[in-house]
Specification:
Alpha-Beta Plaits; single chain; 4-stranded antiparallel β-sheet; alpha+beta; 4 helices; 6 strands; disordered N terminus
Length: 148
């Protein structure tokens, strides 16, 4: 990564590309794709109904567990790069989650996102965007997560 310039305390970097092979996709998305697949970021927010903690039921928690298992399965199948969420509670408008995934096309990425149990059950609303990884220091994650 090369530093292009520093402006107002922000470092401007020349983006890099990520070439990681992907052999399979999960669920109905089983397909072989080439080594030059695209990255996509999907953004998840609780729907208005579920942003109110009083509306959560045992069934809601079950779907959220299924959502977590779905996201984890994407990682196990070579699709997920990383995922996470803000450490806020339902009721806070700044609560959201993201997942960076690999897919052969925007349509395939949308299909993957639409298969998420939390999206299917309208607990979370999702949007997806093409994504370019510009900076990567994944080795720094280890020290950040050791304190948890």
């Amino acid at each position: 990564m090369k530093v292009l310039s520093k402006i107002f305390g922000l470092t401007i970097l020349i983006p890099i590309s990520l070439n990681v092979p992907l052999a399979t996709q999960t669920n109905n998305h089983m397909e072989k794709i080439n080594n030059n697949k695209d990255l996509f970021i999907y953004h998840l927010k609780l729907t208005t109904e579920y942003n109110n903690p009083a509306n959560w039921t045992d069934a809601t928690y079950k779907v959220i567990q299924e959502h977590s298992e779905f996201i984890d399965s994407l990682g196990g199948n070579g699709i997920l790069i990383f995922a996470g969420r803000t450490e806020l509670k339902p009721g806070d408008d700044n609560l959201f989650g993201i997942a960076v995934i690999k897919a052969s096309s925007l349509e395939t990425a949308k299909d993957i996102m639409a298969s998420d149990p939390a999206v299917l059950n309208k607990i979370q609303k999702a949007s997806i965007f093409p994504f370019s990884l510009g900076i990567r220091y994944f080795e720094n994650l280890e020290s950040a997560t050791q304190n948890k």
